[in-house]
Amino acid sequence: MAKQEPAREETPQDAPKSGSGKKGPTPRRRDAQAANFRPLVPEDRKEARRQAQARTRMQQAEAREGMARGDDRYLRPNERGPQKRFLRDYIDSRFTLGELLIPLMFLVIIATFFPTTYAAIWAMAFIWSFLAVCIIEGIVYGRIVRKRVAEVVGQDRVEKGFILGAVGRSMQMRFMRMPKPQVKRFTKVEFTGR
């Protein structure tokens, strides 16, 4: 028979050390519940409502400023990314006919008040044809931007929505655009992929 060695006891130095140990005695249930107690209804409802409204106003103001700056966190998902930023910059760097659309529509409204129907008919025909020209211009800009983006990232990685985005942005007056224009007019804009 083989001789058995006596069982070796682990000393505190041999025991594996864990990073977390017990910090103190377990709190009593009533103490733990009292520490976690949150009233369902605040004691001062009016003050709580004012604070909630103030927080909401601050968050909305921050989101509005972020969107005006063009910060991707505050933009809609279909407006985020470098490709859509290039689309916005490309449109903003040009003068588009669509910027004249809203002022011309006001003139058409005024023309409809004239007693002669010929003025109203000609004004309506003009505004509809001008709208068609503005849409065609936006489509052309959208195709140009899509082509330039495809040259950098490849045709298969081009995002969708360039034509609709170009038409929509080119038909807004410059000061009404959101996000605000980040480039000055008549500056050359290049897509780098970032």
Summarize the helices and strands and which ones pair or pack.
Elements: H1 29-35, H2 45-69, H3 82-92, H4 101-111, H5 117-153, H6 162-170
Helix pairs in contact: 3-5, 3-6, 4-5, 5-6
How does this model look, in words?
The chain is mostly helical. The chain has 6 helices and no strands. The protein has helices at 29-35, 45-69, 82-92, 101-111, 117-153, 162-170. The longest helix is centred in the last third of the chain and has 37 residues, at 117-153. It is elongated, with a radius of gyration of 33 Å. The termini are far apart. The mean pLDDT is 88.
Helix/strand class? mainly alpha
The overall strand count is 0
End-to-end separation in angstroms reads 78 Å
Number of helices: 6
* Proportion of helical residues: 40-55%
* Radius of gyration over all CA atoms, rounded: 33 Å
Shape: elongated
Largest sheet: none
Keywords:
194 residues; mainly alpha; 52% helix; 0% strand; elongated
Summed up:
The protein has helices at residues 29-35, 45-69, 82-92, 101-111, 117-153, 162-170.
